[in-house]
Design goal:
Blueprint (H helix, E strand, L loop, with lengths): L2 H8 L5 H9 L19 H8 L8 H7 L4 H8 L2 H5 L8 H20 L25
Helix pairs in contact: 2-7, 4-5
């Protein structure tokens, strides 16, 4: 599969991995999308809603559910990243959100490697994100 088809497949349906990719590749952003973490329609939630029609409204609740995230992680990443990183909301970049999403997935993988989970679950449980430290987010 060539790169263009691989990206198309990655972005075909809502996924954490797809959102991470889109956040890091501005060329995947829909026309007219402008980044600003301070607004629901202009942050990662807004990007997800513009990328995937399954997401009707850019809220942590809908985006988190579409990405099969637990609610705590969705709130921390999509609404509370400035508090957790001690950065102003206006300073939060797509890379910060992508890094937080990766840290979340890495925590799941580490729990599997440590034998605390048998496999990375299809729906990411609430307790996983509690062990992700702020330091992993740039």
């Amino acid at each position: 599969m060539d790169t263009r088809n691989a990206v198309k497949a990655l972005l075909a349906k809502p996924s954490i991995e797809g959102l991470i990719y889109a956040l890091r590749h501005k060329e995947t952003w829909p026309d007219g999308f402008e980044w600003d973490y301070r607004g629901c329609s202009t942050c990662a939630m807004g990007l997800a809603a513009r990328l995937w029609e399954e997401i009707e409204f850019p809220s942590w609740y809908e985006v988190g559910d579409a990405l099969k995230m637990n609610r705590v992680a969705a709130i921390w990443i999509f609404n509370d990243l400035p508090t957790r990183t001690e950065k102003a909301s206006s300073a939060i970049t797509p890379e910060h959100v992508a890094a937080a999403l990766e840290a979340y997935l890495e925590t799941l993988r580490r729990l599997v490697a440590d034998g605390k989970l048998k496999e990375v679950p299809a729906e990411y449980p609430w307790y996983v994100f509690k062990s992700v430290s702020v330091e992993v987010v740039p």
